[in-house]
Amino acid sequence: MKSNRPSHFSHIDYAWIQIENTNPISPGYSSTHHDSLLSFDRKAYRPALEKIENLVKGGKRVSSIIKQSCVHTIQKIAQQQKCTVGKWMLFLKPQDADEQWEKIARATAQGELGCSAKINPTKDRVQDVVCCIYTSNFADKADVQRVLFALENMGFGIKCGYKPDFYTYLDIYANNQWRLSPTLYSVKEARNWKCKEGSQQVLPFLPSTG
Length: 210
Description:
By secondary structure, the protein is α+β, with helices and mostly antiparallel strands. It is about 30% helix and about 10% strand. The chain has helices at about 45-55, 65-80, 95-110, 140-155, 165-170, 185-190; strands at about 15-20, 85-90, 115-120, 130-135, 165. Helix 1 packs antiparallel against helix 2. It is globular.
């Protein structure tokens, strides 16, 4: 932790500093989360997204029901591809990042958070940097909620919603062409889930329309 602080590295040379959960008996541990990008196949998502693209091109309204159906369809595809990693995100001031990253990194390595975490280097940075705290399965709502509560109990205010990695791979950001939310769950939504400790709440899937 002393030799790999965010302030020691430039974003010009390194994109991220990352740490792994090394506690195999912890609830957030996963030995397979690195396979997420390797199993991702963009082509499989095209039909669901193109339904919305065609509506937008035709000047038609994209209803919430259509959006919800699309989201559930692409979630199912992601699960079939075993592309299930997702993250909570923090935006940290560069001058505070060393201290805050140490808390997150130690908690991650000890198994108190999720499967891994990473942060942007902060040397010569003036803008906020991103810190991602990962869970191995976006459909495991109990684990997603557990990590959110753990971060809040550590004093971190989570404002940005939970984002699965396959959203990132598909370029589902703010103001995307499909008019989808850039995150899968809001903080408020995740706080209100009725999850039992140690349980795995799996997302229900809606049938695709048409």
